[in-house]
Amino acid sequence: MTVNLLDFDAEGLTAWFAEQGEKPFRARQVLRWIHRSGVADFDAMTDIAKSLREKLKAKAVVAPPAVVSDKLSDDGTRKFLIDVGNGNAVETVFIPEDDRGTLCISTQAGCALDCAFCSTGKQGFNRNLTVAEIIGQLWHANRMLGAIRQPGVDDSGERVISNVVLMGMGEPLANYDNVVAALKLMLDDNAYGLSRRRVTVSTAGMVPAMDRLRMEVPVALAVSLH
After folding, report:
1. 99/26 Cα distance (integer angstroms)
2. Three-state helix/strand/coil letters over 78-112
3. Do 223 and 206 form a contact (C-beta atoms < 8 A)?
């Protein structure tokens, strides 16, 4: 059975590599290729031994959800429609500003909360997105916006995507485990290396999960009130 490596944060990927008899530094190498460089083809991971590349091709894939449409507005806002299967699609939005570039990411297909101020709840709830489907939105946006970082190149300068907000379709804290794994990838220096001050989780106010998030991944929190 093949696994989708986009479903693993660093800890999970290291554990999976250990099960394959591989050392932790191999997991870090692959993590950088997938997330920093946006590579999905194992043969393109040139500093990894050929034997390991062959093993990865037999046992794993890097499979983000498919982008079905890409629309650019006059103000520079760019909207991606992401196919997550079974007739479900979610939206990812890039909003450019003078001092930042913000990507708004979805975490569920539909939403069960039905908040009065939000149209998503009117559609009903279909399912939680997987880690691959959540982080895959950032993976795609980096590639499509030309934000890929090359191996060995210093990336201390300005980024195309400097901020991420989990404020798209769904209640992030109702999909807690998958959201936390995706957040860890966003902050990981071997993946996207974003500042925790520039990653925001928007919630309708799920207090126990807010407390857990503060302990596990203390990113910025926005609470929507009505």
Report:
1. 36
2. EEEEEEEECCEEEEEEEEECCCCEEEECCCEEECC
3. no
Q: Which tens digits make up the pLDDT trace of 129-187?
A: 999 999 999 999 999 998 776 665 555 556 799 999 999 888 999 999 999 999 999 99
How far is the C-alpha of 140 from the C-alpha of 209, rounded, in Å? 28
Whether the Cβ atoms of residue 183 and residue 220 lie closer than 8 Å to each other? no
Alpha helices in the chain (DSSP H): 10-19, 24-31, 50-59, 131-144, 176-187, 207-216
Q: 204: helix, coil or strand? A: coil
Q: Beta partners for 164?
A: 103, 199
Torsion sign, CA atoms 65, 152, 12, 171: negative
Which residues does residue 88 pair with via DSSP β-bridges, in sequence order?
Answer: 85
> Which amino acid is present at 63?
A
- Residue 176 amino acid letter: Y
Predicted structure pTM score = 0.91
Rounded Cα distance, 14 and 1, in Å: 18
DSSP, res 5: G
Give, to the nearest 10 degrees, the angle between helix 176-187 and helix 10-19.
90
